[in-house]
Amino acid sequence: MFFHDLKLETELIIEHRIDNLVEHELHMHDFLEINVLLQNESRFQLLDREYTGDAGDVFLFRPYAPHYNLAKDAEKPIEWIMVLFSPSIVRLIPNGYRLLFPFYTEEACPHIPASSEYAKGIQAAARAAYEEQEKKEPGWESVQFMRFIDILVHVFRYAVSCSAGQGERAQEVDEGVAPVVEHILRHITEDIDVRELIEMYGRGKTYFYTHFKQAVGVTPNQFIHRLRLQIAMHLLKTTSKSITDIAFECGYNSIHYFNKHFKQYSEVSPREFRKVAKQAM
User: Fold this and answer.
1) Which domains does the chain have, with CATH numbers?
2) What is the pTM for the complete model shown?
3) Is 1's pLDDT higher than 60?
4) Contact between 107 and 163 (Cβ < 8 Å)
């Protein structure tokens, strides 16, 4: 299954995992995910690239980005803490919507090296959050949530530190953009009317477009196409479904429209992409 329709009983899950898989089909979901590598070398596998991770590294998996965390050596299982959460959880944090900036823009690098002070802070907070869950002492949920906020703050500060210009834009993220982005994530393969998004935002069209782009780095339409085409690329690579079926499954009502946007995004046609992807497997 290419899409994991995860049903979280809570808005936050923190798990300790150990695995020695060196190959696995990529999966995707609409939640935000942080992996904190504790031991041995990992391959953070994405659809079109791969990052090598060392103990202490942190990796962000963005919504609808096909991914999997793999061991580099089957004889050396990787150990990591996975933080999985719904975007809606930030409503409980003062100015929390700003902290989601690194998960939505492709300008922020998803790989935070262990040598970074931010990675060290994230690892300490993740360990503490998991320990609270294991001990379950009175009030542990509140303490865990505070550690989770620490994790998000360190991730955000790392993204800000990567580029002065990007950091300035991140500081200007408008609070109203967060629920709009979450709505897009929840309905990405359905018809999405930008006019409804503007109405949800509650302010004028120009204001909406300006502040959405400040938060995400692209316009609402570009963001929607990016997510849909990530899904399409994964389906082209891993299934034998027809290009027409994939187009409709990803939310496109016109094969011509799908082909046009696919080529703009990947610089090749869907047919050419599938051919190259199959040859590489």
Assistant:
1) 12-171 (2.60.120.10), 175-281 (1.10.10.60)
2) 0.75
3) no
4) yes
